[in-house]
Amino acid sequence: MQLILNLVVTMLLAPGLAFSGTIKGTTIFSGKAPLLTPHKTGKYKKACGIDIPNESLVISNNRVKNVVVSLYGKKLETRTDEYRLDQKNCRYEPHIIAMPVDSELKIRSSDPFNHNIHTYSFDNDPINIMFIPDQEEYAQEMEEVEIIKVECDLHSWMTAWIVVTPSSYSAISGDNGTFEIADVPPGNYKLTAWHETLGSLTKDITIKNKDMDVNFDFLEVVQEEARK
């Protein structure tokens, strides 16, 4: 009996074990989504192919991919790490990066021709660098919470997004629109879902020592406002 009591006490005292919850959910757009056509590469078709997929709105069965879901609140842990952005096959890979503040972004190019990466940031130092074949990677620490658009000045269709989040508690929805944020300490938070085309939604949530389902429907966003 004493052994069982000791195990129970250990579990209750272990940080992030007994007193934490997991947020699970799905991001959807229940309205009629526009059909996006691929980007035409024009004079660059020999190097890049005739067209490039348009990743600005990827929806399958009303489920939205590439939604960044971030938790906002006090005393949330930030685990810094390294994140990578590649210029490959005339695209940015990945298309969306969610990285906690003070983490390092490393940028490289796998293509055998030039690119010019250009970030449109205000709170973090902007990047405007020409990449030539076999150039060494460039690294920069993202010090402020911000949503940053990335473009290539040489290939107009190349876009990506860097979402610098306030903590490590964030996720990006996958092909089926699902996301999961694990080991969230108990408390009251704001949970925000952001998409580059559909806009942003925020919900107030309370985490206890159990899992929680939170779904987002971007039909709730006034789309005329989201596109501004």
Structure report:
By secondary structure, the protein is mostly beta strands. Helices cover 9% and strands 45% of the residues.
Layout of strands and helices, then pairs:
Elements: H1 2-13, E1 21-28, E2 39-40, H2 45-48, E3 51-52, E4 59-60, E5 63-64, E6 68-72, E7 82-88, E8 91-93, E9 96-100, E10 104-109, E11 115-120, E12 128-131, E13 138-141, E14 146-152, E15 159-165, E16 170-172, E17 178-184, E18 187-195, E19 199-207, E20 212-213, E21 216-217, H3 223-226
Parallel strand pairs: 1-20, 1-21, 7-10, 9-15
Antiparallel strand pairs: 1-17, 2-3, 4-5, 6-16, 6-18, 7-8, 10-13, 11-12, 11-14, 14-15, 18-19
**What would the CATH topology be?**
Immunoglobulin-like
CATH architecture assignment name: Sandwich
For the residues shown, what is the average pLDDT?
Answer: 90
Low-confidence stretches: 7-17
Which superfamily, in CATH terms, is the homologous superfamily? Cupredoxins -  blue copper proteins
| Computed Rg | 20 Å
Order of helices and strands: HEEHEEEEEEEEEEEEEEEEEEEH
Tell me the domain tally.
1
Structural class: mainly beta
State the distance separating the first and last CA atoms.
64 Å
CATH class categorisation: Mainly Beta
Strand content: 35-45%
Molecular shape: globular
Helix run count: 3
Helix content: under 10%
Report the major sheet. 5 strands, mixed
By DSSP, the count of extended strands is 21
Strand order of the largest sheet: 9-15-14-11-12
Characteristic key phrases:
228 residues; mainly beta; Immunoglobulin-like; 21 strands; 9% helix
